[in-house]
Amino acid sequence: MIELGDAQRRVLSGCAPLHPRAVPLADALGCVTSVDLRADEAVPPFANTAMDGYAVRAQDTAEAPVRLDVTGTLAAGADAAAFTVGAGKAVRIMTGAPMPAGADAVVMVELTRAEDDGRSVTIEKPAQVGDHVRAAGDDIAAGQVVFGAGTTLGPGHLGVLASLGYARVPVYPRARVGVLSTGDELLDGGGRLRPGQIRDSNRPTLLALVRQSGFEPVDLGVAPDDEEAISAAVERGLEECDALVTSGGVSVGDFDHVKAVLDRLGRMHWMQVAIRPAKPLAFGVVGEKPVFGLPGNPVSSMVSYELFARPGLRQMTGHRELFRPEVVAVADEPLPRRPDGKVHFVRVVCTEGDDGRRRVRSSGGQASHLLRAMALANALAVVPDGHGVDTGETVRTLLLG
Ligand code: AMP
Ligand code: MG
Q: What is the pTM for the complete model shown?
C-alpha cells in the first residue's frame, strides 16, 4: 500500500495545466485567469452623480437657503459637453448623468424646492465639495491590474471585466472530462433489471461531480467487461476530452479489463492506497491526457474522485487551491473503527454549534456500497489508523462544498 499523500503527488505530477486561451466572457464563469488582467480605461469613465438632484458649485450654497437659476437638465446617458455651471447657477441632474463643467457637488432633490416652473431652485442646506459625486476612476483606475493571474472568476469578476469592455478573457479553459462506467452487470437508466443486473449509478454521480467542480462533463456511456468495448470507449473519450474518469474494473477480479486496456494505451500506475474506502486506484497519462481509473463501488468512486480526480483536474485548470477545505471538528458521537494500516474517510454530517465549533455525526453505514449515507454526508471525517474517535474528541474533516 502507498500513503495517500504519495498517491496524490503521483496524480498531480501527471496533471499539467491546459494551454490558456481567450474565451468569451459569458463562458468564463469559474475559470482561472492565466495572466494579470489590466484596465485600459477608468471605471466609472467620467465623474457622475450618485443622486437625483441639482449639480451646483458648493461655494454658492454656503449661505443656504439660497436660490439658483436652473440652466438645464442632464439625464443618465446625456452628453454634458454643452453644460457649464457658472456662479449662481444649477443644472438639474439624474443619477448616473455626467457632472457638468463648473459644478463640484450635487444637492439631492429632497433638500431642494423647484421654483418658477423649474426655472430656478431653492437649495435648503449648504453642500460640501464632492457631495454625491462619483469621481472618474473611483472603482478602477486606467492602467491598474484589476485581477491577478490565478483569480477564479465569479459573477462579480465578470461584471468588472464587462465594465472594462473585455469581450474575451485569457483563462485556463474548462477541462472536458469524459466519464465511463464499466461492468457487465450495469444497466443504463430505467427499464427492467435482469437477474444479476444493477443500475449504473456511478456515471450520473461522476458526471454531476465533474459539472459541480466547474468542468465540462462528457458522457461516454457504459462499457461491458470486454477489452474491445472498453478500448473503443476510452479511445473515443481520449479524442474528445482533456481527461477521462472511469469507474470499475481496477481491482484484482478476473474481469477487471480496464487494467489491461489502460496498460496497453499509456503509462499507468496501479496503486493500492492506504485509505478506506477507495483503496484501488489506477492513474496514468495517455498521450498527455490524464486518466483516472476509479474503483467501482459507488462510495469509493466518489471518495476517489474527491481525493484524486478533483485535485488533478483543478490543477489542469489553473486552480491554486487543489483540495477541499479542512476544519477541525468535534465528534458528537463515537466514530469507531479497527486498526488496519489505513486512514478512514468517514461520511459525516458537519454542522456548526452555537459555540461556533464544527461538530460531526456519522451520516449512516460506512460500507463502500452504501451510497445513500454518502449522499446524506456533507463532509468526510479523516479518522487516522487506530480505534477511532470518541465523543468529544476532535477530528480533521474535509468539507465537501
Ligand atoms: P469493480 O470495481 O468493477 O470490481 O466493482 C466493484 C463493485 O462496484 C461491484 O459491486 C460493482 O457491481 C459495483 N459497481 C461498479 N460499477 C458500478 C456502477 N457504475 N454503478 C453502480 N455500481 C457499480
Ligand atoms: Mg466490475
A: 0.94
